[in-house]
């Protein structure tokens, strides 16, 4: 999702922008894939924390930018309803 030039997922765009900003500061970014529910050490605790976090009140999501295609698709879908 982060490597494709045509990503239409707003959180992916935020992540790509953040990674680019970090790299421009001559810092290193490492991403690791962790299998879910596979007996990985600490995975159960991570699941517990994620569940707790999901129950907390969250601020409204506010994206600075998003792809034009995403806006068009959203408008098209809303107009068909």
UniProtKB/TrEMBL annotation:
InterPro entries, sorted: RNaseH-like_sf, RNaseH_domain, RNaseH_sf
Source taxonomy: Eukaryota, Metazoa, Ecdysozoa, Arthropoda, Hexapoda
Alphabetical list of Gene3D superfamilies matching this protein: Ribonuclease H-like superfamily/Ribonuclease H
Domain RNase H type-1 residues, every copy: 1-55
This protein's name: RNase H type-1 domain-containing protein
Any GO molecular function: RNA-DNA hybrid ribonuclease activity
Pfam families: RNase_H (PF00075)
